[in-house]
Design brief:
Number of helices: 7
Shape: globular
Number of strands: 0
Mean pLDDT: 95
Strand content: under 5%
Helix content: over 70%
Distance between the termini: 37 Å
Amino acid sequence: MKARNVTSILLRIIAAIILLQTLYFKFSSHPESVELFTKLGVEPWGRIATGVIELIAGILLLVPTTVFIGAILGVGLMTGAIISHLTALGVESQGDGGQLFILAIIVLVICSTLGYLHLQQFAKLWNALKNKR
């Protein structure tokens, strides 16, 4: 197995684990999650919508043919999370020592890397869409 494939698999698993492990907090209305989204002014719909998109992104990252789409969703989600932390929530949130912020940066870097590694999937998707016109 090529080093590029092993790297992709490891990065996909790490990003998916981080994205999927937060779903419990969002979908169970955990007080910390509710407080974060209340500060952002988007509770409860923002919390639930974010959880659904994170679920979709996590699954897409684990399916070899949809990694690029999952990576793009992950980049979008984590960009929003980082901006939220920098503008409204603060780097440290609820005494977590910046853990949520750091995890968002990690997932952003991983998904950006995966997007680059799987750029050929975008080309295939683009060509398929162009040919359907």
